[in-house]
Structures are given as structure tokens and as C-alpha cells.
Protein: 2-phospho-L-lactate guanylyltransferase
Amino acid sequence: MRVVIPYTDRDPKSRLAPVLSEPERRAFARVMLGDVVAVVRDAGHEPELLVPAPIDFADADTAVGVDGVPTTVDDRALTPAVDAVLDRLGEGVAEVGIVMADLALATPAALRRLTAVGGEVGIAPGRGGGTNALVVREPSFSVDYHGASYRDHREAAATAGVSVGVVDSMRLATDIDEPADLAEVLLHGDGRARGWLVDAGVELDASGGRVGVRRG
Amino acid sequence: MRVVIPYTDRDPKSRLAPVLSEPERRAFARVMLGDVVAVVRDAGHEPELLVPAPIDFADADTAVGVDGVPTTVDDRALTPAVDAVLDRLGEGVAEVGIVMADLALATPAALRRLTAVGGEVGIAPGRGGGTNALVVREPSFSVDYHGASYRDHREAAATAGVSVGVVDSMRLATDIDEPADLAEVLLHGDGRARGWLVDAGVELDASGGRVGVRRG
Structure:
């Protein structure tokens, strides 16, 4: 299956600004992207990047492992750009995956659970109502990533009579947006993103209720 | 399997104070407890409460469904109290479960995945480094719920040569401590806790990055 990974270099991971500088956030976002690409490949699928403008990965290419990945450029917002990808369904394409680029805890096993969950649409909900990963097999389904997209996708599917499978995965539910999410990468990550954080001096801070992070 | 659910009525769910009053927090904590008890039963196990002092559930009893549940009173802190439960292992008891009382998203299917995960210790990590549920089959294993307990439990197991299985479950990873967690209950809960929140006027607030809650 072709698995499309939307990615943008425009002000990446802005909510991580309390912990990482702008160049660091860009580098970290690329490392996470590389991890997701590797997971898609290791799960037996074909990764594809979906970007709003061509990105020169330059010398980071080799490091993050995204060189040679097929890339679609679409300058529209996330929702119409993904909907254009879904338009491939029915044209000889039976299913397509959409996986967010910041799922630093994703593993091939977790992704395989999503693809096995069944339904005309398989969903991996993200924390806080997001939609972190989709497998779409029904051409009439369209996305809306604004707001509580998980709820909206379920409601839209129910209205259209489209069957939905939901995967119960902490790894796929954990998108990395906020400083506290970095603790999850340190605790559970087994890709390059974890090593990148360690090298950047980001470490667990167990002084509060839930574990957070600080920089050493 | 006996599944022990630690619970206390002392200042329950204090971090929910921005959204719920103290009596509301106590009532909500009890409703979540009732949901967890029901999940344990529906998964085919025997629930048991572990409390620091006897609790009079009084007229809430019927409503939350914990009447008649075997109860152990141990006035020590969580860690030694749970360790005393684990001392039953080897005395004709092959395995024991420890499940937190605030897992309002738990389902029988998620709990069954934990019990099937294998290892001398099965762990369901919680967000922020916690340990939300355990199945312990090895008498030498002991708990430490302070700080980043998931990391500490894994390290202790590795040091002692105890094998560990980890379940990848968003439902078991989501303990309900903070206002943002209430959004997860509204989005994914299918027990009484969700209905309680709706009745209390807590609703999704999709105005920010991740969805939060507000009171209507």
C-alpha cells in the first residue's frame, strides 16, 4: 500500500519552542519524518511524501533517510491536499494510508495493527481528538483535519454509511507537538528521534506529576 | 485472575480542580472506579479494591456498581500496599493484576490484550511515564510508583532478569488526571464516566491546538 506522509518545513513543531530552537525544531521534525518513513517501509508499504513546496533535504538527506522517497507537491492546506490523494481510490488503487510525520513512537507492529483493523476506513486517533493515521478504502470518504478531526471523521463516516475500524495504539496516538510529548519519545522511542533528543541534552524531568523534560 | 484496583477517597483527582468541585471530583472518581470494576468483570476477572481506609460508598453504591467487591484495607502508601498484594504470588496464586481506578477509557478488549501480552510482568504504560496496569507472575518483582515508574519498573525487571511484556494501548495509557484528559473521556469513553461528564456540562472545546474541555 502507498502510505502518504504529509510534511511541511514551514515553522515546524512551533509548540516545541520552549525547549528547542527553530533550527533544532526543523532538524528534529526531519528526524521524526525519517523514522516514520522507515516504519512504513519496515511494515511492508511504500512511503510517499506530501509537501506544500519542494524541500531540499540537502545534506540531511542521508541522515534522515528520506532521499529517493516519491514526493507529491500540493500547495493547498492539509485537508484538500489529502483529499486529492484520496481521489486516487477507485482508479485501480484499493487503499491508501495517510500517516502523520511526527509519530515518533510508531513501530511497524503498530502500523500493521492499523492496516489489519478492518473497516472501509481504519483510524488511529491522536491525543486531543486528532487523526494520526488513516487507511482509506472507500472513495467517498473525505478528510477534515480541522478541530476534533477524530470525532468529525467518525461522524462523517457514520452519516455516509462508511464502516470504521479504530486501532487502540498508544504509539500511534502519540503525535509529538508539545514539550511533554518529548518525554514519551525518551521513554518509548526506539528510532533516531530518541537519540537526537538525547544528543540535544533533552532529558526526563520526574519532579512533577507526570514526567516532563528539561535540558541538561 | 484477581485484579486489584487501588483507590482512595482522599482529595481525589485534585488536578481536575479547575473544572470540577471537590464533591464533583469525588463523585467522578467513584464513577470511573465503577467503570474499571465493570471492565475487570467483563474481561472475566475478579475485581478487588485496595483502599487506605474503609470507604462508605453509601447510596452511591448501587450507582457506581462497586457494592460487594472484595476490599483490602492497607493504610500504607501505594507502593508498599501493592507490594503486599504481590506477596500473595507463590502462595498458590500464579498471577495478579493491578489496575488503576482512573482508566476511564479501559475496555475488556484492552485489558485482555494486557493479560495476553506475555512476560513474567505485563505492563500497560501510562502517559508521562506512569504504570497504569500490571499483570505480575513473578514473586520477586516489586513495584515503585514514584516518579517515572514505567522506566523504573522496566529497569528493575531487567536487573532482576524478569521478562517484561508491554501492551501498546491508548485506552490503558490514558489515566484521567488533568482537565485535558476529560476530552479523551468525551471522545473515546463508553462507560458511565462519559455520561457523568456530559450530565455535568463538560464539553469538548476545539478552539485550541489539541481539543480540551470547557463547562457549558
Q: What stands out?
A: The mean pLDDT of chain A is 94.
